[in-house]
């Protein structure tokens, strides 16, 4: 029997030596999530076939938040143009204490988005647990609003999405907190965009363990992190529910302008 781990130590993610075969044909192709910084880019991404419009200011870091006024403009512009795609938005880089986290999440949700994405770096399993508590409270509020009938409008959003930053790997504690949190989706992403594609940085088996663990708990599994078009065959073999792009959807790097042609090409390549 293994000796018990000292308190506070989190073992690395257990990765099977030969990753289990996944019945990819049972799942639909991954949905395309495209990060946009303003309403014009959002309209381009939606018209080019993005399934989820993700509001993010790339100049402010891996999880840079779009200002609230611009976020509202993005939602309004999409709906006015008849695009029904869900909108996600990040709250910006943490760390957050629990009260600040809740305030940021509620303020972001109030802009009319469906998902609020919150980053969690290495060793931040506790933040993910706190996020799970907030998710449970918000869900209870939604249920109460539903029970109160049509007189009380339902909040126009669905849930929180932890984004696990995994440039150097993913510890089991963070993944366990994410899978147990009752989130609609969990994403893996990179913090340092100069380090290359997630696929080049982490072993395929580790990514597959992430995807399968999240999906086994009923959530969507999403992958992002400087993903490139040439990564798509390997990414598809992992059968994630979401693939997130910014850099590969821009003509001059992730801080440049979104290119609708590139988004359309990514959409076509996803099948
Ligand atoms: O959520 C998706 C990210 O915005 C991906 O950005 P990236 O492709 O530049 O890493």
Write the layout of secondary structure elements.
Elements: E1 31-36, H1 39-47, E2 52-55, H2 68-80, E3 87-90, H3 98-109, E4 115-120, H4 125-147, E5 159-165, H5 172-179, E6 185-189, H6 198-201, H7 204-216, E7 220-223, H8 232-237, E8 242-245, H9 260-270
Parallel strand pairs: 1-2, 1-8, 2-3, 3-4, 4-5, 5-6, 6-7, 7-8
Helix pairs in contact: 1-2, 4-5
Bound molecules: glyceraldehyde-3-phosphate (G3H).
Glyceraldehyde-3-phosphate is lined by residues 33, 35, 54, 56, 189, 193, 224-227, 244-248, 254.
Description:
This protein is an alpha/beta fold and 271 residues long. It has a single domain (27-270), classed as TIM Barrel (Alpha-Beta Barrel), CATH 3.20.20.380. It contains 9 helices and 8 strands. Helix 1 (39-47) packs parallel to helix 2 (68-80). The protein is globular. Residues 1-5 and 18-25 have low confidence and may be disordered.
- From the helix content, strand content and strand pairing, which structural class follows? alpha/beta
Main β sheet profile: 8 strands, parallel, barrel
What's the CATH H-level homologous superfamily? Copper homeostasis (CutC) domain
Question: Which regions have little confidence, pLDDT < 50, spanning 5+ residues?
Answer: 1-5, 18-25
Named at the architecture level, the CATH assignment is Alpha-Beta Barrel
Mean of residue pLDDT values: 88
Molecular shape: globular
The small-molecule ligands in this entry are:
glyceraldehyde-3-phosphate
Q: Report the total helices.
A: 9
The count of strands amounts to 8
EC number: 4.2.3.153
Function: Catalyzes the formation of 4-(hydroxymethyl)-2-furancarboxaldehyde phosphate (4-HFC-P) from two molecules of glyceraldehyde-3-P (GA-3-P).
Protein name: (5-formylfuran-3-yl)methyl phosphate synthase
GO molecular function: lyase activity
